[in-house]
């Protein structure tokens, strides 16, 4: 028997998101499991009030999200979070860095997606006009993020202050609240080993694209597989935290963008006709069938002479395969003089032979 999960009420989603923020210091897997339990509990509570339930109703019934999270910690024996330092006034530089992370980060994602689609379908024929700005934006966003978290005890909390970060948290919570959300997240989580391999593949593709050497990219991929799997297992076990975890996530984002661009470029090359165009215009001097001298001038007629210097007539010339020699069409080629027309041909023995 299967059951279909009901979409969470907006009030429930808001309350669960607040509790999740209070427990944000826990390992991702443990936090996801606790969040699911909290959502199930709140769904039952909200069902008692029907569609009229509000966040205020849940707070009156269960207490503030912070208090609810504290009770969960106590009941589950979870460690208390580190004390939060006293809030300080945000300076201009820090505000600017947060804005740069948001703008250049989303710019890198958007331009990277456009470059991938452009390279895949050959829309403009020059995906680099999008790929290069995407990589530059990614570098700027990563640099701003590293400067932003330098010297901070909780880098994740600092990044949550970046504009649009709350929107991402709400989107994540919305996905989790959907009937298909939990199965989809479980499926993605189960594919972690595949993502580790994909990370190594992305690095190999980027190296091959930058260096233009597929064998070198393959060597980098083989070495990266070992490192990626080792790092992935440590991250999944919760051994990578703080700034190191942030560095891993930033590297993953950069590799994702670079890998998409590399895959799109490879697909575009494979689908292309590989015709190379050179600037020089159309030449009307393309040599057609016939014979040409050492200077490239076309030979338009042949006059056979005998040993005594007499012009031979009614002579047919053949090549080594027994085929008649064809000089090609030319206005200057004569089989014989037309009426009222004559021409003179130079005699190799120093005299002139004329026909007319």
TrEMBL record:
Membrane spanning stretches: 99-122, 128-150, 245-267
Q: Which Pfam families match?
A: HAAS
Cite the entry's keywords alphabetically. Answer: Membrane, Transmembrane, Transmembrane helix
Q: Organism's domain of life?
A: Bacteria
What is the protein named? Putative membrane protein
